[in-house]
Structures are given as C-alpha cells and as structure tokens.
Write a structure and sequence with these properties.
Strand content: 35-45%
Helix content: 10-25%
Number of helices: 17
Radius of gyration: 42 Å
Largest sheet: 11 strands, mixed
Structural class: mainly beta
C-alpha cells in the first residue's frame, strides 16, 4: 500500500519541498492510464465509528496503551493495484459502556476526487490497533478491513444514503486483496470471512463544491477536512473543514523575461556528449549495424508551470528555446539586439534563449507555490546529410522526448532580486513531472559552488503585474499582448503557429517552425507566449502585416488611472465598444478566452480632493463682499469669533478637546457668495438662483431653499473674468428677503444629544473628514458642480469660538470620447485622470464655517437623552426581567406592583364583556377603560347591539305579564352568562399562565445600532435543571445571529474589550436548518455571543428640488441619534431545551441611529438599464478611521451594499495593486432617483465600516443624436402631461449647443401629449452627454428629464488659412475671405463658428446669385495669451446644413 515518504524529509527543506515529499502518490495502473481522461467526480466520506469486537483479548496481552486508527486507500480490483496515498486518522481509544457494544468514535471527514469511474475502483478501510510493547517499541496490528464501493455497475456514483450506512468488516489485512485467488466479486469469495457483530458506520456522497479546487490537489489523493492545501483558505463560518465550502486564495500574475539556460561546460559539448550516449544506447538496444543514421536533436523545449507542492495548478506552458548562435544567424536586419559588453567572447552563443515573455496568471502568494522549469529535448533518427540542419521532412521521422534538466524556484523565498540564477537538477530523483531525467555530471571532487554550475543554470528576470511600467518597455510584440490587458478595450488575440496549433513557437526566432505533429506531443501547453519584436506590426507566419488601427495603438499606450500617493478616489466606467482585431480564422477554430481587465472612465471624487483657498477676487470685490452685511459670528461672551487661516496647519490634540469645559459645539455654516468662472470658447450663462444639498455628521440630509444671486458690483465695472454674486434668501412671492444676505445653518452638538462616548467620535469626524456640498441650479434643477471643504479648522483646541472663510472650487466632470486624445492628464494630489474625462471648474463658492463653544445645560430633557451605557454581558439576574408579579391581566400595566386587587373578569376583559347578555348596559363604560383591547370597529358593533336591545326592552314594558317574562328572561341570561364565564376562563387559563411564565424568564436588552456596524453582546445562559440539556437557539430576525466561529468571537471581544468571560472553541453544533445548538451541564452557566448588524435602510428619496428651511429650531431640534423615520425593532431570542420547552427568552430592542456619510456620488444613467461602475478605492492608509500600523502589510478591503438587489463586490488584485469596487445597479423609470449606501471595511469580520458612501442614481430618458459640428440637427421629444395642468419650462446643461422650442414657459395640459422641439449644434467633435430638464416653474419640481447622447463628427474642411495676430490685448483685427456660390441659382447662406469668443462676423447671413462671389468680413478678438488656436467657419445653407467649412489657424504672438 502506498505510504508517505517521511524518510526523505529534511529540516533544510523549503515549504514546497516538504509538502512535495510528504504527498508523493502511487499512480494508477498503467492500463487505466491508457484510457481517455474522463470528468473527475468529487466525494465526501465521513467515517463515524466502529462498533463491535475488533480484536481478541489474548492478542493484546503484553501490550500497553492500545488505541485504534483508521486507514483508507484506493484499490483497483481489476488489476489488483493499490494507488494514490493511504490516509491515516488520529488514534482513538476504545469506549466501553456497560450494556452497550464497544465503540471507537472517529468522526473523520475525507475528501477526494477521481476520474476512474469504474466499478472496480473501490476504497479500502483498514482498522489498525496501535499499541506499545513493554520494552517501549510500537506495534501496529490489523483488526480487519472493509470495502467501500464508489461506483455501481453503470459506472455511476453510488446512491446517496439518507442515513448512515454500516460497512461489514473482514478478517485479515487489505494486503490479502493482492492474492490471485481473490477474484471479483470479492465479497462473495470463500476466502473472505466477516467479523461477526462488527461494523463501520459511515456516509459516502458526491461533493460538487470540491470541483472549484480540482486544480489545487491531484486526483486519487485522500485528504482530511483539516488538512491545509496551499491556495485554499478557511471559509468564513467554518471552523474545522477547508473543503465543505472551499474558499480560494486570490491569484496574481507574474512575468518572466530574458530567460536563458546555460549547460556545462558549454552547450555544444553538452549536446555532443548527450547525442553520443543516445547513439550508443540505440545501437546496443537495437543490436543494429552502423547504417549511417544517427540520433539528432530536433527541438529543445521548456516546460514552465506553477506547482503548489501537490500538483501543477495549471497545465505547464511549453515554449521552444533555441541556441543563441542560431538566433544571431537567423535574425533579419530589422531585429537588433544589444549585447552585454561584459560577456566573454567564448560564451556568446553558448546558451538556450527564449526571447518571448512568460506570463503566469495562476501564482499565489504562499510559501508552497513555486515555479517549475523542465528542459526537454525532442530527438529523431535522421541520415547523415541532416546532421547539421534539420530539414522540413524530418518532421515525418519518428520522434521521442527525454527530460534533460529541471529546477524549482520559490518566489517568496528566493525573490530578493529581480535577476534570478537557479542551478538545474537531474538524475533519478523525484520531480513534479514524475519522469526520468538525464544524469548529472560526477561532482564527487567538486565544491558546492562548482556543483551548481556543473549541473547547468537557468537565468531570467521576474516581475509582477504591479511592477509593470508601459512607458519603459520597448514597442515589442510582447507589449502588444500585455498592454491591452491594461487598456480600455479587450486585448488583441495572440497568434499561434498555424502549422501546429499545439506548438508554441516564435516564428521570427525559429524560422523552421515546429517539426512535431500533434500526436507526438506529450503535453498541451497552457498559453502561448509571443516573441519580442521591434516591428510595430503584427505579422502572420506568411509575413503579411496586420495593421493596428489608430484606436488600437491608442489603447496600447493607455495606462490604468491610479495615483499611489494622492489618496484620491477614482470612479471607473466600463467602455464596452467592440474593437477586436480580426485575425485569420485558419489559425485556430477554437476561441480562447483571454484575461480581460476593463478600462473604466473615472469621475473626480470631491470628498478627497478639496479645492484650494487661493484668492481670485480683486481687493475691491473682497471689500464689497466684506461690506455686504453678513451675520457676524459671536462667541458665548458676545465677542467676535477668532478667524483662522485655512492655509495654516491644524495641531490636533484629542486630550485638549476632551478637556474643554465648553463641551457644547454650535456648528455654523454660512453660504455667502458665488463667483462664476467663464469657460473657454463658451458663452457663460450664470444661474439666477441656486440651492445646496449636503449632510453634516449624523444629522439628516439637508436641501436648502433657493437663494437668489445678486451681482456685487452694481456699477457694472466688475471684471468679466470672475463675476461675483451675493446669495440672498427669497420669499414665496419671489422677492428678496429683508435682512442679512446669505444663508446661515446651525447645528447644536451637545453631549446630552449624543450617545455616551460619542463625543470623541464627533471630534475625530471633525479632524479627519470633509464636507461635500452639491450646488444646484435653482431654476433648471441641474447640478452645477460639487465642492468639498475640510472640517479640521473647526477644532477649537480650547478657544471659545473659531471661524474660517473658504473659497471652494465648484467642479464637475464631463465625458468626451475624443479619439484624438492619446493620454490622460494629472489632477491634483497626483491622481491620474484617464482618457475622455474632463474636470471643469464652474466657479468658487464662498463659505464660512464656525464652531462656537457653549456650556452644557444641566437641565436636559429626560426623553431626549440616552440611558447610561449598558454592559455587553446580559444576564437574566440583572433586574431586566419583564415579570414583576401580579395577576394574569395586569402584565401590560406599566408600573404594576406585586400586590393585585381582585376584579371582575368582565371589568378587565372587553372580549368577555361583549359576550355577556347582562352587561349590555355597561358595555360602553367598560370599553372606555379597555379601549386598548378592542378595536374601533368592534366598539361600534357593540354599541349598535346595545341600542337594539334597549329598543326591544322599551316595547315590552306594558303589562305585568311582560314584566314577569322579563325577569325570567333576566335570570336565564344570568345563568347563561355564568356558563360563558366559566367556559371562557377555562379556555384562556392555560394561555394566560403560559404567558406569565414566559414573562418570568424573559430578559430585556436595548442596543443602539447604525448602518453596517456590528453590535456585539453576550447573554449569560443558565441551565436551571439538574440534568444536562442540548439547547436550541431560535431567533426571529435575520439581522441578529449567534457568533459560532471562535475567531470571530475573539475578534469582537478584543474590539469591545470584553475579556472578562471566556471564549470556548467548537462550542456550537449547527443543525440542518442552521439553528445553533449548545450543550449545558446541570446548573451550568455559559455565555452565548450575539451580533446584530443591519445593512437595510430606508432608500426613499424626496422629489428633486429646493425645499423650505426646516432645520432652524436650534437646540430644540431632535437629537442626531433619534429619528421619527426610524422605528424600533423588537427581536425575540428563545433558548429551547429538549421537548421544545424554553428555559430563557431574551427580548432585544433595537434603536436605529443615523449614520455618517463620508462620500456622496451621483450618477446619471439612461432609464431602465443597468449601470455598471467601478470605483477605485484609495490606499487604505489614506482613509479616515483606518487602523494605524496594520500588521502584515496592507489589509484587504471588503464592501457591503444596503440594497440586496445591487451587485457590489471587490477583488484584491495583489500586493501593492489598487483595489476596485464593482457596482451593477438596475435603473428605474425617469425621473426616478435611487439611493443606496456602500460600507467599506478593512477587517474580514465586517465589525465597523471605515467609510460609508452614499449613492444617487438619476434615471433619465435617453436620446441618441448623431450630427456634424456646426450643423443644426433637429428632433422632437414627446411630453406627456401629468394629472394636473402645469406651467413648465425646458432647461439644458449646454445652452450654446442645445436649443429648445418653446423657449420660455408654456402650459403642459393634464394627461395630454405635446412635442418639445430641440436643435443640437455641437461646437466640437466627439461624444458627450447633455442634460435636459423639464421643470414646473411654480413649484420647482422636476417633471421629466432626458440624457441626450451626442455623437458628433468633424465636417470636411475645404480650405485652410493661417494668420498671425499680436497678443496681450489691443483692438483686434479685421480680415476678409471670399466664398463663391457653386449653384446656378440664387442661395441664402448662414455663418457660424466654433469660437464665438474669438471670431465675429460682419454679417451672420448673406444671399448671392448663382456663380457669384461674396466677401465675408471677419473680426478677430484680441487674445490675452500667446499660442495657436484653430477656428472653424461653417457655411450652412437655408436648412442649416453644412455646405463648406473653412479652418483658420491663428497664431497669437
């Protein structure tokens, strides 16, 4: 039977060598390996226990410490062959209970997979007694064996058993199966004797989850669930099984360049000796005469693969290496190679070289992952004429292969330098390919250094994908393959040699090509490396060039948008336009998937790139701004607050903030003015009104009312370069409010309104975070831009009050897919901005921030303050029980005492009173006191019944007989009522007693939870009985769960500093329904860990537009931890013993709290489509709240989304690599706005997020327009009226390029249909997005919204002119050009230009006859700067279609 090779282990071995030697396996029988490979089937086998008399007592005489062990091996009955590797369990003692059979409990789980699905393939279980002799030596005795059949007669896996199976055990050892008398079927053989009353209890079933890790361990290898496999992690939630739900480690990509192999003493002499030996062996073996034929080297191949100590992770790549001398002779004039000047002349050409790059995508950072190199020679017998050079016909000769050398390289151990030199190995020793290798030279007299050189060496340079710099590499064919992987579009498929699709060879390096047929190859390569070349063209083997398109060359030079030092957050958007390079279909009929990393277009993240405060206003403008009369900010002593310069650094001292006696912080925001910045080449139209949206700390999101923009310089002398406008509040009738200009918002952050311990959180928020403000046009409801301001200057640091004035850049991001752009530019902080994204500064927002300190008020409202902090250890004896004594009907009475006064049942139970006939007169009174027990509808029915009975009684008052009958009826009713009361009491007795008993064992606990933050607590559970119980924990809410992983439990205890209670390993048992169970001894008390974590939140979004100010109540406003929209949750946890009887109940009251929003993103997307976004995470150490000094390097980041219908995930690409968050969101109908949140974590247990991002997805109706620059394109949009009549107006984000008709306010009839005509005249070519809003002008509500996707191309330029003009001002210049009407009839023409700021026409239109010439007068405006500008002049016909386009190149000097 196969065993482990423990005698080969050495203390000096690496991790890979140790795992490789320990896990050597015996291959299946050679006849089995001849069959075609089938799909492998995974199995899970659980060996539970062995019951019965395992061994006779007399055999154990003289033996000590007898324990038992299970051994499992795979066996081929057909060929009587053991294969694989024997698995051994841990030794277990024999348990003997009086009255029960003796038992040995194992509970071992084994996993394996095999492709040998044949009925003759079985698993053999052997029971071994491991004992110690009296002299101290160990002895193993076989107690019997059993046979597990894996496949039935149809070669299918055996049926999955719903219950445990019992396996019969036979006398003897499994070695008996090798005897020739034991033929199939073995179980019916007369030589097989069953052990009476003894069996093995087991389960065997297929295990499909194992298919995901077939590449990490070989088939026919038996592994335990506890065995660590390199490349496999323990799944979250699992404690002792790696294979139940396999979790793979992240892979990285490695590159090998400049690979060469040197053989001792030289390549020529080495191969000459090798050929002589092979020729001599051939003559001896064949006993043939010398016929002139010799063995020649046809090809030299190198196998390169990644091995994890158990198997190759993927099939090794096969490449062809050639002597360096042949490469030098066969190289054409276009191939130039720089030779190393330090190389000796004798060594030139004495190496096997590979000029292509090796790309290994399956590498994993693990000590057991290594790269295996195997040098293989292909030989063939040929005539003497073919000695020096192989002809093409040599491929028809019989070819065979020999392994010459091999070596292993562990990157984590041997990667101290990028240049690697490894000694090769040979001779008959174990190697990963399990083949015989050519002998090593005799080294008995050599030193260690000489031994390494004499065996040969392999040299190469290695790098990871994170170390690749496209700018430093040459424009080679390998770059053509690698760079598109980092570009915006899918990469170009690499080429293979058409003559042999299985051979991977560079046709430039080895013109002869491969000489082997497909059937002669021993292994299929994994991927095809492409050779280096200095040519800019891809070439087929025939030499015909395949030209790269300009777009493809552009993508070759594209780089990933990542800035390592900036800490900026880059948004990425997938560009999925098709741009594949068409190749010849004869190369390969099978399409092969290439690794594809999409290039995304980022959006500037305002939260981490705050604008500077450099002044752009003149001193006169600053003076007018100061004299505008904004409210003065005073401290608690009515003194002006200290002014802080935003450029000064902030010295943050948390102790000084906590020691400040002014613990109340009044945060003031003053919106003062807006300074617009005109855009180049565009007419500037400033908004008349604007409003702002933002969220400060945990306060609700704020949407301010509309503010009017009033020009500061009424004289009109203000500079046109920077027009400043003061902000004024507006009355409902549209007039300006009297009083101070600007808008002031106050937040009172008092310790009485914060939960205990939150004061330090608030201080840290001020020190680390930025406040993001979105600026909106108050009329068009279009987003003007966003600004971000650092809050750290609000730290008072012992001062009574501070204020700071900021001038914030209002920036927006525009998309233009311009194919002429070759590279991105760089934003501030070193963040790289990729192709097609332009950050436009729309203006500057003047904002004042202040923090005024106040003394804490001692008389705080009791209802608004949180209770004192509770311990995280909840006990049923801490006074939180819900039971206070009393009667059955007083349980819901607040403040009930232990003494209860007797009452009538009808007085306390309205349901009973409604059924009694004699209580009808008192029903109304009874219901006034018990209204909480009866619904309003029931009360109305009972009152109507009472009125009917009264009317019936009044009709029967006449007559004595009627009176007597009434009294008799009354007695009957009383008797009937007594029966009803008795029956009712019996019915509710059991329920009322059970309810009271449940209240007696119920404990209440209140926790305060925020979005994404896990709240941890422990419950002290006590077994009140004198017998042991297995308690099942039932929870009626999915957001509250039991922590079953001891690692997670320990993590939360360290995080919350709850170290007074112990942590138990393997504490819980999970049932099939995933309800945890725990075992309790009599009267035992244990602590059950719980975790509450919610990711659900109200995603409702109010209508877009400004609102009235609702947050000016000052300190009387609601505290930030309490919101009327957040409802308290009540979660019940039941601890049930055997028989479904509860022994304790924990009632958890969850009080939701608002959360901090660190970043806000807005996306505009076509309606009813999927938005796919990638957001690049900044380096983890730049995020506020990230842990300092993280051990083990940078942590992996995790994300969770608040909306379960949104796909949100992140992947770790490797150390030092940027990490992206991928979002896939389904958009709704226009103009719906979807809101959701994403929480970012740095710990795997998702304890507390370090960032929470808020996302808004605006769904717009999409309109696609294809047009030509300078030409008007008209189209119509359909407007559908709402239920009421509305006064609406259409607004556009690009007023110079998109015109609407009707232009002003018009009436939209209810439920009607109306056309909105738009005209698009783009100013430059490319693709861009234009936003169009239809707004209700009376209520400032968004009625409808469109996303106009403009795709514009440049017209054909018929004439070009060049002029030179002086710069630096002046009067400008007048020029003239002529235009001739090419038509025979009279025509009207219209003139347009793309730069209306630099060129004006004397007349915008003219009319001339057929064939006549007209002189066009041009007026060029002066320029303040030097440079060149290209101005286009469009000549359009009467339909505004472009007739001709002139280009004027103006040089300003």
């Amino acid at each position: 039977m196969p065993r482990g090779r423990g005698d080969l282990l050495s203390s000096k071995m690496s991790e890979w060598q140790r795992i490789f030697v320990q896990n050597l396996t015996v291959p299946p029988h050679s006849q089995r390996r001849r069959h075609l490979p089938r799909e492998s089937i995974a199995f899970q086998c659980v060996l539970k226990c062995v019951e019965g008399n395992l061994i006779k007592q007399r055999v154990l005489e003289g033996l000590l410490e007898v324990e038992y062990q299970l051994r499992l091996s795979l066996f081929d009955i057909t060929y009587r062959h053991f294969f694989g590797r024997t698995w051994k369990s841990t030794t277990r003692p024999l348990k003997a209970v009086p009255g029960q059979p003796r038992k040995v409990v194992f509970n071992e789980t084994i996993y394996f997979h095999t492709s040998l699905n044949h009925p003759g393939i079985v698993a053999v279980v052997e029971v071994v007694a491991a004992a110690k002799k009296r002299e101290g030596t160990h002895q193993d005795l076989s107690c019997g064996f059993g046979i597990l059949h894996l496949f039935n007669s149809k070669s299918e896996p055996t049926d999955v058993a719903t219950k445990d199976r019992e396996l019969k055990l036979y006398h003897g050892t499994p070695r008996a199966l090798l005897h020739p008398l034991l033929q199939d079927p073995i179980e019916q053989n007369k030589h097989m004797t069953v052990i009476e009353n003894t069996h093995l209890q087991y389960t065997l079933r297929p295990h499909p989850p194992l298919e995901t890790m077939y590449h990490l361990f070989p088939e026919n290898m038996l592994v335990s669930g506890l065995q660590k496999i390199p490349g496999l992690l323990l799944t979250h939630g699992e404690t002792n099984d790696f294979f139940r739900k396999p979790h793979l480690m992240k892979s990285v990509t490695w590159y090998l360049d400049k690979l060469s192999i040197h053989l001792y003493p030289s390549l020529e002499k080495f191969e000459e000796e090798l050929l002589d030996l092979l020729n001599s062996e051939r003559l001896l073996k064949d006993s043939s005469t010398v016929d002139g034929s010799e063995v020649l080297i046809q090809e030299r191949r190198l196998h390169i693969g990644v091995h994890n100590g158990l198997c190759f992770v993927q099939t090794p790549q096969v490449v062809v290496v050639v002597p360096e001398a042949e490469v030098a002779r066969g190289r054409s004039a276009s191939f130039h190679r720089k030779q190393d000047l330090s190389a000796k002349p004798s060594m030139v050409g004495q190496a096997l070289v590979l000029r292509s790059r090796i790309r290994l995508t399956e590498m994993i950072h693990h000590p057991a992952f290594a790269i295996i190199f195997q040098l293989e020679y292909v030989f063939c017998a040929s005539s003497g004429a073919d000695r020096k050079a192989l002809s093409i016909s040599s491929s028809t000769k019989a070819a065979y292969m020999h392994s010459i050398r091999w070596t292993v390289w562990n990157p984590l151990v041997d990667s101290s330098s990028t240049d690697v030199i490894l000694p090769l190995q040979g001779s008959a020793q174990h190697n990963p390919s399990h083949v015989l290798v050519y002998k090593m030279p005799p080294t008995s007299m050599s030193s260690e250094e000489v031994k390494q050189v004499e065996s040969g060496t392999v040299q190469f340079q290695f790098s990871t994908d994170s170390e690749e710099h496209l700018g430093t590499s040459t424009n080679s064919l390998s770059n053509t393959r690698e760079e598109p992987l980092r570009s915006a579009k899918p990469s170009t498929p690499f080429l293979r040699a058409p003559s042999s699709p299985q051979m991977l060879v560079s046709t430039q390096d080895y013109p002869q090509g491969p000489g082997l047929s497909i059937s002669q190859l021993s292994a299929s390569p994994h991927s095809a490396p492409v050779s280096h070349s200095s040519k800019p063209l891809l070439q087929r083997q025939t030499g015909s060039p395949v030209l790269l398109s300009p777009g493809m060359r552009q993508r070759e030079r594209a780089e990933l948008p990542y800035g390592g030092s900036g800490g900026g957050i880059t948004h990425l958007e997938a560009d999925l336009s098709p741009s594949y390079l068409i190749l010849d279909s004869s190369a390969s009929d099978q399409l092969q998937e290439l690794p594809f990393t999409p290039m995304h277009v980022p959006i500037v993240a305002m939260g981490t790139q705050t604008g500077s405060s450099s002044t752009v206003l003149t001193r006169a403008s600053l003076s007018r701004l100061h004299a505008a009369g904004f409210p003065e900010i005073l401290d608690c002593n009515k003194e002006p607050a200290e002014v802080v310069d935003p450029a000064d650094p902030v010295d943050f001292n948390p102790q000084r903030e906590e020691a400040d006696f002014l613990q109340s912080n009044e945060i003031i925001l003053q919106f003062l003015a807006f300074t617009g910045i005109p855009q180049d080449g565009m007419g500037t139209t400033w908004p008349k009104t604007m409003y702002f949206t933002f969220q400060f700390y945990r306060f609700p999101p704020v949407t301010t009312p509309r503010l009017q923009l009033v020009n500061m310089d009424q004289s009109g002398t203000a500079s046109s370069a920077a027009s400043s406008h003061t902000l004024f509040q507006i009355n409902k009738d549209g007039t300006l409010k009297s009083g101070s200009p600007g808008l002031q918002i106050k937040y009172m952050v008092d310790p009485g309104f914060l939960k205990p311990g939150e004061q330090c959180w608030f201080i840290r928020y001020i020190a680390d975070h930025n406040l993001q403000i979105d600026i909106w046009d108050g009329d068009s409801l279009l987003l003007i831009g966003s600004a971000a301001v650092k809050l750290k200057h609000l730290l008072r640091q012992g001062r009574t009050a501070v204020q700071v004035h900021h001038e914030l850049e209002v920036m927006t991001t525009e998309y233009e897919q311009d194919t002429t752009v070759m590279s991105g530019d760089v934003l501030r902080h070193g963040t790289v901005k990729p192709i097609g994204v332009y950050v436009v500064v729309k203006g500057r927002l003047h904002l004042s921030l202040a923090n005024v300190g106040h003394l804490c008020e001692q008389r705080l409202k009791k209802s608004n303050s949180l209770p004192p902090p509770r311990s995280r250890i909840v006990s049923s004896h801490d006074g939180t029980s819900s039971f206070h004594g009393g009667s059955l009907f007083s349980l819901n009475t607040p403040g009930a005492k232990n003494v209860s006064q007797a009452q009538k049942l009808a007085d306390v139970d309205s349901e009973l009173a409604a059924m009694l006939f004699s209580r009808l007169q008192e029903v109304s009174t009874a219901f006034q006191h018990t209204s909480r027990e009866a619904s309003a509808s029931r009360r109305r029915k009972l009152e109507r019944m009472m009125m009917v009975r009264q009317l019936e009684a009044q009709e029967d008052v006449s007559g004595r007989r009627a009176s007597l009958m009434g009294r008799r009826e009354e007695r009957i009713q009383h008797s009937r009522d007594l029966q009803i009361i008795d029956a009712y009491r019996e019915r509710i007795k059991a329920e009322s007693i059970s309810s009271m008993l449940r209240q007696a064992i119920t404990t209440n606990y209140t926790l305060y939870a925020t979005l994404g933050t896990a709240e941890f607590f422990e419950f002290a559970l006590r077994n009140p009985y004198n017998v042991q119980h297995t308690v099942t924990i039932e929870i009626d809410h999915p957001e509250l769960s039991v922590i079953v992983d001891s690692r997670e439990w320990r993590h939360f205890k360290e995080l919350t500093q709850t170290m007074t209670t112990p942590v138990e390993e393997d504490m819980f048992h999970l049932q099939d329904n995933l309800m945890p169970q725990v075992y309790l001894r009599p009267k035992e008390t244990i602590h059950i860990p719980f975790k509450y974590q919610t990711f659900s939140i109200d995603h409702a979004v109010m209508m877009q537009g400004p609102i009235e100010l609702r947050f000016n109540k000052g300190t009387e406003a609601a505290p930030p931890w309490k919101s009327s929209a957040m409802l308290t949750k009540r979660i019940k946890i039941s601890f049930k013993a055997n028989g479904d009887k509860p022994i304790a109940i924990l009632s958890v009251n969850v009080e939701p709290q608002p959360h901090v929003v660190d970043q806000t993103f807005r996306f505009y997307h076509p309606e009813l489509t999927f938005l796919k976004k990638s957001i690049r995470l900044p380096p983890w150490y730049t995020l506020p709240g990230a842990p300092a000094g993280m051990p083990g390097g940078e942590p992996e980041m995790y994300v969770r989304c608040s909306d379960p219908n949104i796909i949100c995930e992140t992947k770790k690409m490797g150390p030092g690599e940027p990490q992206d968050v991928f979002l896939k969101v389904a958009g709704g109908p226009s103009p719906q706005i979807k809101k959701f949140f994403v929480a970012i974590y740095t710990d795997a247990w998702l304890a507390a997020p370090i960032q929470i991002w808020q996302f808004y997805l605006h769904s717009l109706q999409r309109v696609d327009v294809s047009c030509i620059t300078g030409q008007l394109t008209r189209l119509s949009l359909v407007l559908r009226g709402t239920q009421t009549i509305r006064k609406v107006r259409a607004y556009t984000s690009h007023t110079q390029e998109l015109k609407v008709d009707p232009k002003g306010v018009f009436i939209l009839p209810p439920n009607g249909v109306q056309d909105l005509h738009i005209g698009v005249r783009p100013q430059k070519a490319g693709s861009r997005f234009v936003y169009l809003n239809l707004v209700d002008v009376e209520y400032h509500q968004l009625v409808s919204s469109w996303l106009v996707c403009v795709s514009c191309r440049q017209p054909v330029i018929s004439k070009a002119f060049e002029i030179t003009l002086p710069s630096g001002g002046g009067k400008g210049s007048n020029k003239r050009i002529t235009y001739t009407n090419p038509y025979p009839s009279r025509r009207m023409y219209f003139l347009h230009t793309n730069r209306a700021d630099l060129l004006q026409f004397k007349e915008d239109s003219f009319e001339i006859g057929g064939g006549e010439t007209y002189t066009i007068g041009l007026r060029f405006a002066p320029s303040q700067s030097t440079g060149e500008e290209e101005i286009l002049i469009y000549i359009n016909d009467h339909e505004d279609k472009n007739e001709e386009t002139f280009c004027v190149k103006v040089a300003y000097q």
